[in-house]
Design brief:
The chain is an alpha/beta fold. It folds into two domains: 155 residues, HAD superfamily/HAD-like (Rossmann fold, 3-Layer(aba) Sandwich); 120 residues, no CATH class. The protein contains 13 helices and seven strands. The strands form two sheets. A five-stranded parallel β-sheet has the order 5-4-1-6-7, with helices on both faces. A two-stranded antiparallel sheet has the order 2-3. Strand 6, helix 11 and strand 7 form a beta-alpha-beta unit. Helix 2 crosses helix 3 and helix 10 runs parallel beside helix 11.
Length: 294
C-alpha cells in the first residue's frame, strides 16, 4: 500500500478511481461504535447522565438514523447538542446544556477536524469546550480499540475489492482518525487491495475527491465514491463525480448489488443517469430528515 496519508503524492495507475468510505460502509462498525462508545462517552464527558435515555436517542438519530449520518465526530457533538436544546423533554427537565460555542468557532477556521488540529487549537486558545471535546475524542478512540474484535466488514466487500483490484485506483476516504482506519483495514486484510488510506487528518471527503476530479487524469464518469452517508453523496456531487450508496440497514444487499451489477455498469459507462438516480432516490428514502420525537 502507498503512503497512508497524502493524496497529493498519489500516482494514478488506472483510468478509473474509486473512493471508499469505511465506517458503516466497508466495515460494519457504525451501530456498535455509536451505541457502545460515542454515545455513552458523550453522556459521561458532557455531564448528561440525568437525561441519558433522551441523550443517547438523540445521538443515535444524528449519527445513525438521519441525513446527518456520517458527520465528523466533532460536528456530531455540536449537532446533537443543538437538537437536545430543542427537545421538550430536555427543556422541561431544566438541564443546563453547553452551547459548545468554542467548538463552533473552531469549525469556522479549521477544515481538518481531527485530534491533532484540536490539540493545536487548545494550545492557542485554552478553550474549555475544545478541551472537553478532546478528552471525549481520546476516550472514544480507546473504547473503539477495545471493541475492535467485534467489528467485521460487510458481506461481499472483499469480493467487490477483488473485482476492482487492477482495474481502478482504490482509495479509502474517511473522516475517522487515520490510525484507527489503517488498523481496521489491516485487521481484516483489506489493505492489500487498495492503494491509499486517507483519514480525517488528510482533509474532508470533498477535498480528497477534489484531487482525482481536478487531476486531469480521470474523466468525471470514471470516478466513483462509495458511501453510506449524505456527506459522501455531497462530496461526490460537489466534485461532479458518481456515487454508489451503501443503504443504511440494508448494507449486505447493497454490496451484493455492487458486485452483481454496479461495477460492470461503472466500467462500461452505463452507470451515470437513470441507474445512479434510482439508487440515490432509494438512499434518500432510507434516511429521514426529521427526528421521530417531533
Amino acid at each position: 500500500m502507498h503512503n497512508q496519508y497524502s493524496i497529493q503524492d498519489f500516482k494514478p495507475k488506472h483510468g478509473f478511481f474509486i473512493g471508499l468510505d469505511s465506517d458503516g460502509c466497508v466495515i460494519n462498525s457504525m451501530d456498535i461504535k455509536h451505541k457502545k462508545s460515542f454515545g455513552p462517552l458523550f453522556i459521561e464527558h458532557f455531564n448528561l447522565t440525568r437525561e441519558a435515555l433522551f441523550v443517547q436517542q438523540t445521538w443515535e438519530f444524528v449519527n445513525l438514523y438521519s441525513r446527518m449520518r456520517g458527520s465528523n465526530r466533532f460536528k456530531a457533538l455540536s449537532l446533537t447538542m443543538d437538537l437536545l436544546n430543542k427537545r421538550k423533554e430536555i427543556q422541561d427537565s431544566g438541564m443546563a446544556l453547553m452551547p459548545l460555542q468554542g467548538l463552533k468557532n473552531w469549525f469556522e477556521r479549521e477544515s481538518k477536524l481531527g485530534n491533532p488540529a484540536l490539540e493545536k487549537a487548545i494550545a492557542e486558545t485554552g478553550d474549555e469546550d475544545l478541551k472537553r471535546a478532546l478528552g471525549w475524542s481520546l476516550a472514544v478512540n480507546q473504547s473503539v480499540a477495545e471493541i475492535m474484535p467485534e467489528i467485521k466488514p460487510f458481506d461481499h466487500v472483499e469480493q467487490a475489492l477483488q473485482q476492482l483490484q487492477g482495474r481502478a485506483d482504490l482509495v479509502a476516504v474517511s473522516q475517522m482518525p487515520t490510525e484507527t482506519l489503517v488498523h481496521e483495514w489491516q485487521a481484516h486484510g483489506l489493505d492489500r487491495y487498495i492503494d491509499l488510506i486517507c483519514g480525517q487528518e488528510a482533509g474532508t471527503k470533498a477535498e480528497l475527491l477534489a484531487f482525482p476530479a481536478s487531476s486531469g487524469h480521470y474523466e468525471d464518469d470514471h470516478i466513483l465514491m462509495v458511501g453510506d452517508a449524505p456527506g459522501d453523496l455531497a462530496a461526490a456531487q460537489s466534485n461532479h463525480v458518481l456515487y454508489y450508496p451503501i443503504i443504511p440497514g440494508n448494507e449486505n444487499m447493497a454490496w451484493k448489488r455492487f458486485c452483481d451489477e454496479a461495477i460492470d455498469k461503472f466500467f462500461t459507462g452505463t452507470y451515470a443517469g437513470e441507474y445512479e438516480a434510482s439508487l440515490i432516490e432509494e438512499f434518500h428514502a432510507s434516511l429521514p430528515e426529521n427526528p421521530p420525537w417531533k
